[in-house]
Design a protein that fits this description.
Elements (H helix, E strand, L loop, with lengths): L2 H24 L1 H21 L7 E2 L6 E2 L3 H28 L1 H9 L4 H30 L5 H25 L3 H19 L1 H4 L13 H12 L6 H26 L2 H5 L21 H11 L5
Antiparallel strand pairs: 1-2
Length: about 300
């Protein structure tokens, strides 16, 4: 008896996950972005910036690093591209499927399974894009800690993907979500670029969404001794907060009008009219009746 509920939950989860992954695969624009945007950004960042050495202090360890300017721009550009692409993918999937998700919830489909399916699809997409971006980065220069570098890209993708789910559930126009993701990433990642903020002593950088990933990616790119697990944990904390916001927004978007306005009053239906109608004889029928009584034709 106890296996049937478990089997039902597993079936609901696997079905929702399968359709979430299919939705991502059908997004051809996202596929083009992954295939072209990441290598173009990587190549342009490496070739357009001079290779002169840049001294900057890594906030994670206080260590002073001197990488080439093109190498530093390449790493920050790859991080930005991964965050943008995953954020766009999750926003588009959530926004276009919001009405369908609401119908599923109103039909009795468990809301938790739909959210877990989105998280699973987000995890798979982040793994694929982070691995692809790490491979492209290694073409020009292998990071000193490649696994940590890939983990930093993965965590940034998770965070922006959760933000995409939240924006896709809260906003009502597609252009608003695209603009919001682009502006958040610009403010977040450009301000943290070591080329511009290496001499800044402001502590506001610590509260930006991708602070942990930026520190872990730059440290893993140019240092073999830096321990960066703490900053990966900070980024996972940001993902947890964003995922909670996305879950609440998804719950509000998929709730029914019955939940918002309370139970509706049932109005009794009117009885159906009989097909046999009783007609009241009019003046013409009265004349005809009197004519029949006197033997006349109507």
């Amino acid at each position: 008896m106890s296996r049937h509920p478990v089997r039902r939950h597993w079936t609901c989860f696997t079905t929702a996950t399968r359709y979430a992954l299919i939705e991502h695969l059908r997004n051809r624009f996202a596929t083009v972005l992954v295939a072209l945007f990441v290598p173009v950004w990587t190549v342009m960042g490496f070739l357009s910036v001079p290779d002169a050495l840049v001294r900057f202090r890594l906030r994670a360890t206080g260590e002073t690093l001197t990488p080439g300017g093109n190498q530093l721009t390449e790493i920050t550009g790859v991080l930005n591209s991964v965050a943008l692409i995953i954020g766009f993918m999750m926003f588009a999937a959530t926004f276009t499927g919001s009405h369908f998700d609401r119908r599923l919830v109103l039909s009795g489909y468990p809301r938790v399974h739909l959210v877990l399916a989105k998280v699973t699809a987000l995890t798979v997409a982040s793994v694929v894009v982070a691995a692809y971006a790490t491979g492209l980065t290694c073409v020009f220069r292998v990071p000193d800690q490649p696994l940590t570098f890939a983990a930093a890209l993965f965590c940034a993708g998770l965070t922006y993907g959760a933000l995409g789910v939240a924006l896709g559930s809260l906003l009502h126009r597609e252009v608003e979500g695209m603009f919001a993701i682009a502006m958040i990433s610009i403010i977040d990642l450009v301000l943290q670029n070591p080329l511009y903020s290496s001499s800044s002593s402001s502590s506001a950088m610590r509260y930006l969404p991708s602070y942990g990933s930026m520190q872990a990616a730059t440290g893993a790119g140019f240092s073999t001794t830096a321990s960066l697990n703490r900053y990966l944990a900070i980024q996972l904390l940001w993902f947890t907060v964003a995922a909670c916001v996305g879950f609440v927004a998804f719950q509000l978007r998929t709730r029914s009008s019955l939940t918002r306005s309370g139970p509706r009053r049932l109005v009794p239906k009117r009885p159906a009219r009989s097909s046999t109608r009783t007609t009241t004889p009019g003046p013409r029928s009265d004349v005809a009746t009197r004519g029949r009584r006197h033997g006349e034709r109507p």
